[in-house]
Specification:
Three copies of one chain form a homotrimer. Chain A contains 20 helices and eleven strands. Chain A folds into two domains: 16-50 and 154-467, Metal-dependent hydrolases (TIM Barrel, Alpha-Beta Barrel); 51-152, uronate isomerase, domain 2, chain A (Orthogonal Bundle), CATH 1.10.2020. Chain A is of the alpha/beta class and 478 residues long. Helices cover 49% and strands 8% of the residues of chain A. In chain A, strand 10 (355-357), helix 17 and strand 11 (379-381) form a beta-alpha-beta unit. Chain A has a four-stranded parallel sheet, with helices on one face. The two termini of chain A are 40 Å apart.
Amino acid sequence: MEKIQLNEDRFFDSDPAIRRIARDLYEGVKDLPIVSPHGHVNPRLFAGNEPFPDPTALILIPDHYIFRMLYSQGIPLENLGIPATDDAEVEQDHRKIWQILGDHFYLFGGTPTGIWLQHEFYYVFGVEEKFTGESAMRIYDRIQEKLQAPAYLPRALFDRFNIEVLTTTDGAADSLQYHDEIRRSGWRGNIIPCFRPDAVTNLLTNGWRQNITELSRISGISIDSYSRFMQALAERRAFFKSMGAVSTDQGVFSPYTHELSGTEVELIFERALLGRATQQDADLFTAHVLMEMARMSVKDDLVMQIHPGSFRNHNRFILRRFGADKGCDIPVQTEYTKNLYELLDKYGDNRKFTLIVFTLDESAYSRELAPLAGHYPALKLGPPWWFHDSIEGMTRFRRCVTETAGIYNTVGFNDDTRAFPSIPARHDLARRMDCNYLAGLVARYIIDKNDARQMSRQLAYDLVKKAYKLEGSFDVVS
Amino acid sequence: MEKIQLNEDRFFDSDPAIRRIARDLYEGVKDLPIVSPHGHVNPRLFAGNEPFPDPTALILIPDHYIFRMLYSQGIPLENLGIPATDDAEVEQDHRKIWQILGDHFYLFGGTPTGIWLQHEFYYVFGVEEKFTGESAMRIYDRIQEKLQAPAYLPRALFDRFNIEVLTTTDGAADSLQYHDEIRRSGWRGNIIPCFRPDAVTNLLTNGWRQNITELSRISGISIDSYSRFMQALAERRAFFKSMGAVSTDQGVFSPYTHELSGTEVELIFERALLGRATQQDADLFTAHVLMEMARMSVKDDLVMQIHPGSFRNHNRFILRRFGADKGCDIPVQTEYTKNLYELLDKYGDNRKFTLIVFTLDESAYSRELAPLAGHYPALKLGPPWWFHDSIEGMTRFRRCVTETAGIYNTVGFNDDTRAFPSIPARHDLARRMDCNYLAGLVARYIIDKNDARQMSRQLAYDLVKKAYKLEGSFDVVS
Amino acid sequence: MEKIQLNEDRFFDSDPAIRRIARDLYEGVKDLPIVSPHGHVNPRLFAGNEPFPDPTALILIPDHYIFRMLYSQGIPLENLGIPATDDAEVEQDHRKIWQILGDHFYLFGGTPTGIWLQHEFYYVFGVEEKFTGESAMRIYDRIQEKLQAPAYLPRALFDRFNIEVLTTTDGAADSLQYHDEIRRSGWRGNIIPCFRPDAVTNLLTNGWRQNITELSRISGISIDSYSRFMQALAERRAFFKSMGAVSTDQGVFSPYTHELSGTEVELIFERALLGRATQQDADLFTAHVLMEMARMSVKDDLVMQIHPGSFRNHNRFILRRFGADKGCDIPVQTEYTKNLYELLDKYGDNRKFTLIVFTLDESAYSRELAPLAGHYPALKLGPPWWFHDSIEGMTRFRRCVTETAGIYNTVGFNDDTRAFPSIPARHDLARRMDCNYLAGLVARYIIDKNDARQMSRQLAYDLVKKAYKLEGSFDVVS
């Protein structure tokens, strides 16, 4: 058995001058509460507060970061227990699946997934040996045992993780039943929804017509026209807000923004209701909805988020057999300067409006996004997203963005995860990397130690609360 | 009062092996005269040689690098004294404005603007305390006091800064009156114009028709056709050259180059005179003028510069209220390989012609620009421009460009600034970063110390003089 | 005479923590045999096994990396002895040409070409002084003397370089006569062909009609239709395979993949035979052929390679006077996510198929290529190519790719060279950089030393053999 210890200085630059400062800055932020303003944890977890089933069901099966890598190396998703949409048989023996992960864990060398899992095993489950094919079953048993204990129930972990607020992502037609149950349960964990209407705003989404029916039902507004559709959206935003929401989110292929005339948009929506919307209809509709969401945000103060640039379900074979979100969403080149022009022209100077933009196209950091955020009062930059939520990704982000936009036009960290027990690992990594970045500035005499200390706290805690308008809503710790 | 000292090793890598070499290389170049071949300082400063009015008027109001950041954080430009085009009231109390800058100076942590200001305060004005809201008014008074002294008159600073040549940027219809006054004044400061005809070559410029009238008047050529237009341009180039110009410059949206037939271009120009030019007309005309400017450069030996890829006046609200150059120019993706094809095909092999290309799209460095400059004798790469005139920007530039194009296909540093007293700060930073880059090569045994010493001098002084054909025109110091 | 010594730690990070680990890892891989799965060495060298003529003919004249840099600085190719297609006179005095190289060798400071030449001089030819204008002729004489010795014959060098397999690149109509001669000679050097059909698949290639005639002749299949063309290709693939080929290669402008209908493709081919193919015909034909090559690879198991994104012969003046491959191929922006969609949709999930993709557009590394390779079982990423086969290029590649795709979806190193004696230099540099990258991970506690050791061996030796299906074909050393 190979014992491991996670080094206190991990991920910091190895240059002693930087490392010393980084460690010192990190000491000042590592215990701050976690604010998670964007993610995909299922609120049902905390409503039911049932024990997690087993390591494989908890860690591997819901995490496309993990199984896409195994798949890329030739392991069929069936062997990993990923449920097939056609009810084909998939591996049911979770111990066997876990063994496959152990046997192939070397694939994750140098990846954030490797780092997060190691952190999770070590700090959340107290596993002190290296994860390999040899140790896999011992580790499985160890985690399994823990999962039965009360200290490992979702709410207990939430408290232990010191999470001040956790934001989920919820569809426009979602009843927010679990958020409601959590509130009424008397438990004080702060779990709030985020309004993400993609399933009804993307006219070509699979099942769009059905989604509209759902939205009609839940909003009590019969959606037979675009204007009724917008009423329903407005109603839902108000409902989400009443349930604690502070933000909206939209995943779009392109960040193109453009206001259509009333007639144009009504006609497009009519075609959509008839099942005749074209790709161009859908693109224009999205561009228009982005304008409308901004307009509504100006009114109701919800922070607007855009996540563009992902070619969803690139692998149709996997989509057909296993559904969406299976590791086959691939980024594309994304243009911001021209595409956001109309929206920023209309709302970008509004100091009360906040638009947080994310990207999967790192070439836009220094070229488009930092210059835009370094000028428009409404625009802020989301942290490095998805594939770029990593040591090198965060380093590139800060290096490309800070010199033009400073740190105050960025918004702290988003863990963006479905994997609840990985949340501390992800925030810890982000805090380490931000401290390391600032330490590099101090070591080169670009900023002084006091400034760095201030900035490290901003990056770990203050900026996210300010950007997402969470200040004052909760008891602020520390 | 928090005393500060600028560390001698600032901006160098913190690794001692690199830092030691960087410092040593820097010692060899730090006192070389400044050659500033491209910038936006107003020549009137040196013709009149009047004292600068006050710190706010000198430092903040003309510098969009500064006020765009304040604006991005919600401070209206009115509060910063930026003159409104509609004569709306703006803050007149320069002390009050300065206090705002002090209160928000933390926003510039990690930005080149922060670094430049610190350098300027410390070395130009002898300010030895940290700039904060608390110290702001003391620093204001200190600078204000200095500005009254003869040693702080523009010409005295020019001499103290050890500027060998300073290039201004001047429109095609500019009389160069101030350049003339400087020459006739007997003062020996070398201030030369650069021919930038954008206001007459971009058919859709605001006021284009009026600009053409101006050009007619000053050239004595009545411009009623394209061919007369070209005559006027040629006349002005000759005049600029007689006034010491060694270069031209063009800011274009796209670097597309394409020669139109005589008929085509005449028709486009005719439409423009009638106020009927379309966007396509303007684009094609720019593409054609780039070809013509190259042709003329081959003849008259003026170095040709292109600055493409900026979406000017992205924020129309600011444009309407405060005019151009107010921090709202945002970069776009820029293609060079195909766009420069026709120009390079015709003139790129000409060893007497020099085309210096700049970019705001860093993804083009290693992909397009270094391979082009590493092949075509006529093509040289301008230094990292604007948002990329920074520690990380310069580092990325050298790392992306050198392995393919070497350093000898680059042209030293451009400060490109309107802010005269920031010139030493900017050149100092560039020299430090180039020395640091070379030190990194030495420390990894990629080049030896002697080569590095040679190269550091080339980057600080020799290359710029060679590229801009300034060799031999002046007494060479050192 | 300035003596030089190549430092044992060259190219490693100067930070002692990283350097120590890098050196240690490097010790473990530096003597592994060289596997060169993609390159442009002429097999005739090893068939004839004649002495190399002289340093200039061996080193400078065939290497566009070298003469493009000299050309960019104003030295005409005629002066460098590059043969002109019009039989114009070019310099014949190879000593004089070598002197020019020596006089300008400073241009290569900080470039991989400079590094490779230094390595080659030092280790292959025992030159221990710095290459300058002053030493140039002494070094010429030294190398010239060596070249006469039996130890410097091609086969002797091949053995001394410890090359386990060397892959050449050969046209579809190539007889592979030299490969055959090598086999029949009894010499055991393993030199295998790679099937590159560009000259017949790119309908607008200069001389395409003639190339088709050649292909008809050598395949014995009279190509008067697309279907006959495909038969001929299939026949040639089989022949190449019988001669040891394990891979195909295609240089394409765009990686667009699209299957045409039988009628469409026949009509396009017909137009091509009549000399009437349009640019669009050629583009579509390439897109279709990529699909067909994948289909055939699935059948015959040849690894498929694509090298897209080079604008070939950008400088028409040079093309007319000196032909292709003269340093005037310039990269362009390249899109992979959408362009490879159809091919990956059809073949990307096939675990027996291997598609290795290269790029000259580094912005695609983290945005498109790593996410694609981190998902599709069939897709692997080729090493940094051409302009990016360099210290910084390799560093950017690993940093941008590993966190998303790991190292196991990459394929080791390709030297891709025409310059046979530079092969050890190139592999040595790659091994150093990979070890240095891994050492950086160890020094930051991202991976442990044991993992790093494993991974360093994979990158130097195992991955390339696995990816190119070379395992088991030869005696594996070490």
